[in-house]
Design a protein that fits this description.
By secondary structure, the protein is an alpha/beta fold. Helices cover 40% and strands 22% of the residues.
């Protein structure tokens, strides 16, 4: 029996290099994927110099907190190199927002926030003293760092990557607006969509998590459903439920 996304056209907005997992999940359900890359991940403005300098001495920290797979991908090589060299006397505890981020670190993670939200990790994080490194993108706010600091820790924030907006080509725009579903995986994706299309959208729009929905609402984009977890599977399942309820 065909699923509710079978033969539905679904717009995904991340850069093509990051779309593979989402595209495969959708195609396995029989969906027709419409790729409209609106955001890409790039090096920070300083080409990552501050990030790399801090990570070269990561053993100075009691905890390293990572909020996304993009950040984890930039930390993982430093962790792996230290393990291979065997020259780190004290390995920091690792904390991650979501299982996908934890897997991308490639090391044992002491604290994983599920649902995958920064506020959940903030609530879970223990009280204590010592040094905490928070690794985020350039668009992240200071809410998580502030919450950890309020629990007694000394917090250092470092920008691991930069999210940049892309403009869709003219031949991408009509198929995107004619699609059945729009998936917005982040607040930056919602902003990029609005900059390109205004508040015009396909009939069903799914946002990943409350923060994405909040940005979309501020821009005047109507959200049909909010994925309860910040995972690709949760976003797709939310779209399926919306069609099932039609």
């Amino acid at each position: 029996m065909a699923g509710s996304l079978h033969d539905r056209s679904v717009v995904i907005t991340r850069s093509i290099s990051q779309n593979e997992s989402l595209r495969r999940l959708l195609e396995a359900r029989g969906a027709r994927v419409v790729e409209v890359p609106l955001i890409a991940i790039a090096e920070p403005d300083d080409e990552g110099r501050e990030r790399d300098e801090v990570l070269q001495r990561f053993e100075d920290f009691n905890w390293i907190v990572v909020t996304s797979p993009n950040g984890a991908d930039r930390i993982a090589p430093f962790l792996a190199a230290a393990v291979a060299a065997g020259d780190v006397e004290r390995f920091p505890n690792l904390a991650a927002v979501g299982e996908a981020t934890a897997r991308s670190l490639g090391a044992a993670v002491a604290l994983v926030a599920e649902p995958a939200r920064a506020d959940v990790l903030a609530d879970m994080f223990p009280e204590g003293t010592g040094e905490v490194l928070v690794v985020q993108g350039n668009l992240a706010d200071d809410g998580l760092s502030g919450a950890i600091s309020a629990k007694g820790w000394s917090v250092t924030r470092v920008v691991a990557y930069r999210t940049v907006q892309l403009r869709p080509t003219p031949d991408m725009m009509a198929p995107a607006l004619a699609a059945d579903v729009l998936l917005l995986a982040s607040g930056s994706a919602a902003t990029a969509w609005f900059d390109a299309f205004g508040d015009s959208t396909p009939p069903i729009v799914v946002g990943m998590g409350p923060s994405t929905a909040k940005v979309a609402a501020t821009l005047g984009i109507d959200i049909s459903g909010i994925a309860p977890e910040q995972t690709l599977e949760s976003m797709i399942e939310t779209a399926e439920r919306l069609f099932d309820d039609l």
